[in-house]
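Database export, one record per block. Field names are fixed; values are copied verbatim from the stored entry.
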Amino acid sequence: MTKKIAWVTDTAALLNEDFIKEHNIHVLPLSVVFEDGVLRETVDMTQDEFYDKLRKTKAHPKTSQPAIGEMVSLYEKLKEDGYTCAIAVHTSSQLSGTYQSSIAAGEMANFKVYSIDSKIGSYPMMKMIEYGQKLIKEGQDVEYVVKKIQDVTDQTALSFIPSSLSQLHKSGRVTGTQAFLSNLLNIKLVISFDNGKVEMKEKVRTFCKAKKYVTDQFREEMQKNPMEEVAIIHCNNEKEATGWKADLQEEFPNLNTLVLPLSAAVGVHAGEGTTGLSWVTF
């Protein structure tokens, strides 16, 4: 019997509407908890509304994973609609409980869910879904596809450069002294995902040097594993991202270079103006 497979993710991937419709993705929203209430990403607020509210708020907001009740309701609905199972690609379990909740919600709904810890966020999650759907169309069985996607989780990269450390200080990621000295001396950090965790990789003077560090990492990877696509990711900083795209296209004219916004959940911690690069090697 042919299996009817549902695809599920969360807004850490921040897929655009065209991709969601084309690939029939069910998206669970992450939430931002402001002092005057909780707003679900892409449901209760747009990106512009989020950053406008972030600039004006006095108390620093927090982030929250999708409610488990919402997950259970989705899986029950999928079962009612005749789906055999779901493949759910979620943001890193080191940063959010979404992956664990997905497993629990599947059990509560008595519905088979293949939950995958992407060990990352953003663009690579989109590529995992694309890759998995391609394998399904080729006739591969679900268990094989899940295993192949899990393999891809170790072949991804995402590095970003916070615009300043003020937002990281507000979210408790750095001390006030570190933030003050960084802003005073124009110190820029390069922060990367490493096996699901977010770690500081480099500390340099000026944004240009930080961008060069990340670009050098990408260039080295291209020499080992040539890629057809890369994503420039940003927190409401399309101008800087577009400039970075132009630089990459000059060096790699045959490279498909995307410019993609980061989730509001990232914006809460990294801050408006953050930019970076992300890629996947297959």
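Remark 1: Residues 207-224 form the longest helix (18 residues).
Remark 2: The chain has two domains: 5-30+65-152, 156-280.
End of record.
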